[in-house]
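seq:
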Amino acid sequence: MKKILTLTLFLCVASSALALPFGSQSALVIDESSGQVLLEKNADNVVPIASLTKLMTAMVVLDARLDMEELINIDEQDVDVIKHSTSRVPVGASIARKDVLQLALMSSDNRAAASLARTYPGGIAAFDVAVQAKLLALGMTHTTIEEPTGLSFHNTSTASDLVKMASAASTYADISRITTDSRDLISIKGRQVEYHNTNGFVGKKGWDIMLSKTGYTVEAGRCIIMKIKAAGKNVIMVLLNAGANSTRNRDALNVRRFLSDEKVAVIKPRHPKVRV
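struct:
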């Protein structure tokens, strides 16, 4: 809690930060140990956050200290009726809660996240109360979370608030471990199914990642949260509302290059060809 309060204080008093040519519409990069803002763009804009929501879902579930070996039955109630997204987690499957958490965080499965909230003690209503209490405890005063998956565009936040969430989430050993797994085998209806991390940087050479979560909806664009070690610093980066995966990934690479004093890629404007 002391670290989070210190982080909040530095975020409030930081006056300015250097700029990169971000393609993401909002961005914030901070040195977690000091709270110093290293890079910033529209960090206080309130925007949809898509599946970044699942970090909050995971914290609330883990705070309840539930039996992680208990089987959760994936139900019709867990099917996405907001975006009608697909899922590789079939209705009718019985999966240990620890593996459901793995699916929700690592591969960002929406049915998995929905089932975690549905099976929370007291159901969805109690889960919602716990989420609001967690937001208050973390000082995330500009964040609204109405459901556990991030599919709703009513789930909104700022880069500044999401740094607080990332810092808190990284203190959970299970969340740090799961979000930095590049892949895992999960038993689904008697067979082993391989699932992959939605963040392609996880496990790649040159990246020391301690926390990761991606997000995407049409309203939120391409989003990512990462806690990384670079140039001897523990750094949290939040990138929101990029127009494409390539844009988000280029921004993340540029942040790492900036921290390591490497050459930053310059975004060159494209000029249309003129036919004569």
